[in-house]
Amino acid sequence: MAHVPVYIIDGARSPFLKARAAPGPFSAADLAVQAGRELLLRQPFEPSALDEVIMGCAAPDEVNIGRLVALRLGCGKRVPGWTVMRNCASGMQALDSASMSIQCGRSDIVLAGGTDALSRAPILFSDEIVRSLAAWNTGRGAKQKLLSLKGLRPRHLAPVIGLLKGLTDPVAGLSMGQTAENLAHDFSISRSDMDGYAVQSHRRALAAREAGRYNEIVPLADENGRLYEQDDGVRADTSLEKLAALKPVFDPPWGNITAGNSSQVTDGAALLLLASAAAVDRWGLRPLGRILDTQWAGLDPAVMGLGPVHASTPILDRHGLGLNDLDLWEINEAFAAQVLACLAAWRDPDWCRRHLGREALGALDMQRLNVDGGAIALGHPVGATGARLVLHLLEALRSRGLRRGMATLCIGGGQGGAMLIETCDSEAGHD
After folding, report:
1. Catalytic site residue 75?
2. 403 in a structural domain
């Protein structure tokens, strides 16, 4: 099939709000609706003109959140909405699903992205409690009901944290942080290297904020009228000394992965409008960019953080590109160790021959990577991050007058995703 262009028309995201040991002010749908409303108000068409709404969400508290968002945005009953889930890449999967729908001619204009309110992840009962409650409900008479509680012990009352279950790989038997510890060991990445990278993430995010490079953010207002205007996890006081004082979280006491050199647990949403050439012509739209290529890859779940290498390299090979032939890169900062391991893998001739079947790609210029900070400073609302990476990559390219970039991320369960995009000349319309 001949290549059918998919244009990025516009995008918006909410501020990313750090989870603080209690449910945040917005549900996942609230986040997406407020960001999506602002985005649609800027368009020359009504929400009912959309062909689809596709949302990624890893921890929904509403059923089929894509349909719910479509209805709450005023798209009407005719516009279908659906939800995708590919762990950390759910938002990117939504964009890819929208792209495929446009390329096959089924849709012309699609609202796609992702959302998550990780602060509202459920707290669950243990299996022992659930069995006892089931026996209580089916018991006949007081005696049978009381007998159903006989085997319960105080330890069974401990809550099961849904978020922690979601961040643990059931095949490898490891938390995501433990997979990052594996990478730190395999590539000899030191604690000081990780903390130094984390400090850089915060400093770049602060510099970007001061330079006005987060234009994609639209403010949120809660039910009490409080306004949330910017990402609240970025810290101006982060330093190597402060990060060095933090204790390891995932492999104490000997590990090196801490809360300070890991992505933040966060609530947020990011949405983009994708369109075909026909829709661009029909509505007189001015595309900001286009999606050139997408790749998904699988790898050992125990080293899932190398997913960006496995997903991005085939795209580079297809297009005859080297790492530094692209103007900018966005690699999700799930963990500082994970990003640094990806860079080390590309430089390692033996690793590249064994795992990619090719020569090493060399060193990625750090001035092209996550130039405005990443998830260590901004946060990682799992369902939204894949869309945020693409949206901000486009903004970063355009604000600097650059052309092409790659957005990529690792995915829990041992996968990687990557998307190659380029900017369009908005004055010239689409090419």
Report:
1. no
2. yes
